[in-house]
């Protein structure tokens, strides 16, 4: 079956169903115009100041507000809605894709619940608080981008260089859905490539019989199996084509429990490693594969964390694939679930970073130590800026990230820590996370402060020639490099221009990029078994002008030349691993 993205013509922003990995026919979008107010903490008088376009953060131009929420302030939202006739099938749930950072929700003046953390989705059962006719939904949000406890990504109040504008509030879709009184709450889908089976665990608050179906190319049922909720159900997958970046074959899954029904999908694939001639390589479905990707920050010039349309995300992933890359490293951000779906259907591998946090970063940890090869003790929680509450919150968010993204087919690597930002007990964290998800690889400490764990010997190399050395026990990855910069007049965010090596024209940038791969990347593949590269970066972000695209998504490079270079990279890798 060919999976295709669906794009709506609705005037409601980001109207497409937000969660294709767990989809119901019941859908009522609450995106659009809400009322808002920003006030000092505890001083809200019930008066709203204007309109905000949800789901854009108030700091963005698309929101219509364009104001920075300070850590001493509250952000208030209000939306009135009336359910369509026949919508309520027994239960009604409010779903929020993400809201940064601490959110309390009220319906018709009564508290629904609260959520902490700015990157994970959450849902509330609002059935008992609904009234006939109009319903008043309100949110109260506080956000501290300096907090040591919560993941913050690259958000700062004083943006500049590699640190970007802090956002707050609702920044992913908000919607209602209705279910029968007995309902499915989530799915866990785990393919077993070697056994040609797939294990589907349908979760529910109720102990009920469930039927799981796998559909074929024409929508026909090719495999079906029954079982109970909260228990893995094994289905055969013989005859299902493997999923690979070159042939991203997916299969629909339908799960039925009583009157409730959800749709999902899976790809038959496995991620592992394999030693060839004494060198460890990453594999997909048992075969060596070169992970050839770009660093993807997920920032937008008009919406900051949120694209103007879902098609913007799709077109970007497709452009990456069309240039011959097969991977994106999602850097210190969790995207809307549709973004992962686009990677699944287009065949773009995903390296997914966990969200960094902790106390203010010290120069010794993140700047001086790596250049002087200083190994820091990341179990010294005080010096690493990770008090107990911060460590506990990190683990909650990391485990929640794995749970939320587990069914994403293209996701192949987890990165718990990057460049020592909020790093602590990296070996212990990696081991704990691997117990939760052992089906993927781990880059336990990307860049530096490597403690020898995980599956990758992961190097970040700027300012000097990229000559990474294989440590002999893990996969060698150049997980950040390049950063070549070019400013395009009329397509910059500020007058400041940050990058690691500047060029004055597209031709000079293209020549330098080609030389980088010919002189450094390909020789490292041939001599050291280099198996993964993450070029910095996909797009410009605020001060940074080191993208292959500008911040407003104008391409700077020759796409065909990039594709030709990538073909040379794959050829060198194949010659190395298949000789």
Written description of the protein model:
Strand 28 (411-415), helix 5 and strand 29 form a beta-alpha-beta unit. Helix content is 18%, strand content 31%. The radius of gyration is 24 Å and the shape is globular. It folds into 3 domains: 28-179, Sandwich (Jelly Rolls); 186-266, Immunoglobulin-like, CATH 2.60.40; 271-578, Alpha-Beta Barrel (TIM Barrel), CATH 3.20.20. The relative contact order is 0.11. It is of the alpha/beta class. Helix 1 (310-322) packs parallel to helix 2 (337-346) and helix 6 (506-528) packs parallel to helix 7 (559-578). The strands form 9 sheets. The protein has an 8-stranded parallel sheet, with helices on one face.
Largest beta-sheet details: 8 strands, parallel
The CATH topology label of the largest domain is TIM Barrel
H/I helix tally: 7
Given the C-alpha coordinates, what overall shape results? globular
Give the percentage of residues in beta strands: 25-35%
Tell me the number of strands: 34
- Give the integer mean of the pLDDT values: 96
What is the highest CATH level, the class of the largest domain? Alpha Beta
What's the architecture of the largest domain in CATH terms?
Answer: Alpha-Beta Barrel
Residue share in helix: 10-25%
- CATH superfamily annotation of the largest domain: Glycosidases
List the main descriptive attributes of the protein structure presented here.
single chain; 8-stranded parallel sheet; Immunoglobulin-like; 579 residues; Jelly Rolls; 3 domains; alpha/beta
In short:
The protein is α/β, with parallel strands linked by helices. Helix content is 18%, strand content 31%.
């Amino acid at each position: 079956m060919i999976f295709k993205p669906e794009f709506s013509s609705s005037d409601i922003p980001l109207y497409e169903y937000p969660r294709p990995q767990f989809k119901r026919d019941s859908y009522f979008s609450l995106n659009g115009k809400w009322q808002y107010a920003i006030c000092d903490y505890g001083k809200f008088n019930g008066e709203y100041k204007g309109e905000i376009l949800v789901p854009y953060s108030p700091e963005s131009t698309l929101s219509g507000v364009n104001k920075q929420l300070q850590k001493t302030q509250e952000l208030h939202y209000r939306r009135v809605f009336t359910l369509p006739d026949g919508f309520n099938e027994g239960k009604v749930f409010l779903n929020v894709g993400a809201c940064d950072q601490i959110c309390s929700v009220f319906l018709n003046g009564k508290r629904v619940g609260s959520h902490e953390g700015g990157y994970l989705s959450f849902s509330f059962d609002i059935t008992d608080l609904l009234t006939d006719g109009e319903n008043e939904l309100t949110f109260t949000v506080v956000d501290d981008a300096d907090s040591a406890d919560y993941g913050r990504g690259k958000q700062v109040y004083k943006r500049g260089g590699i640190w970007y504008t802090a956002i707050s509030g609702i920044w992913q879709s908000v919607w209602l859905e209705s279910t029968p009184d007995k309902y499915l709450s989530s799915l866990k889908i785990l393919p077993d490539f070697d056994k040609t089976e797939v294990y589907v665990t349908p979760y529910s608050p109720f102990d009920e019989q469930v039927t799981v179906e796998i559909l074929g190319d024409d929508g026909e049922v090719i495999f079906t199996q029954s079982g109970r909720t909260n228990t893995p159900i094994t289905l055969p997958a013989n005859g299902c084509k493997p999923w690979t970046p070159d042939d991203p074959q997916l299969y629909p899954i339908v799960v039925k429990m009583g009157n409730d029904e959800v749709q999902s999908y899976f790809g038959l694939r496995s991620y592992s490693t394999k030693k060839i001639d004494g060198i460890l390589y990453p594999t997909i479905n048992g075969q060596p594969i070169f992970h050839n990707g770009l660093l993807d920050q997920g920032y937008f010039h008009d919406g900051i964390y949120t694209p103007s349309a879902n098609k913007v995300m799709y077109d970007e992933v497709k452009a990456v694939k069309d240039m011959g890359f097969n991977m994106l490293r999602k850097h210190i951000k969790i995207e809307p679930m549709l973004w992962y779906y686009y990677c699944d259907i287009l065949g773009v591998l995903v390296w997914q970073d966990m969200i960094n946090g902790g106390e203010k970063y010290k120069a010794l940890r993140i700047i001086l130590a790596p250049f002087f090869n200083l190994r820091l003790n990341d179990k010294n929680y005080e010096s690493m800026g990770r008090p107990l509450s911060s460590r506990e919150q990190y683990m909650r968010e990391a485990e929640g990230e794995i749970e939320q993204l587990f069914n994403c087919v293209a996701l192949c690597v987890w990165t718990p820590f990057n460049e020592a930002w909020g790093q602590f007990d990296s070996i212990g964290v990696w081991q704990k996370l691997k117990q939760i998800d052992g089906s993927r690889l781990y880059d336990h400490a990307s860049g530096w402060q490597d403690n020898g764990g995980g599956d990758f010997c992961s190097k970040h190399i700027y300012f000097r020639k990229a000559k990474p050395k294989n440590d002999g026990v893990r996969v060698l990855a150049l997980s950040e490099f390049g950063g070549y910069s070019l400013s395009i007049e009329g397509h910059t965010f500020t007058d400041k221009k940050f990058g690691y090596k500047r060029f004055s024209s597209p031709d000079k940038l293209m020549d330098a990029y080609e030389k980088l791969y010919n002189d450094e990347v390909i020789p490292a593949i041939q001599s050291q078994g280099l198996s993964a590269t993450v070029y910095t970066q996909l797009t410009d972000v605020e001060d940074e002008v080191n993208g292959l695209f500008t911040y407003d998504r104008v391409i700077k490079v020759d796409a065909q030349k990039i594709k030709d270079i990538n073909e040379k990279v794959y050829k060198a890798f194949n010659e190395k691993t298949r000789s």
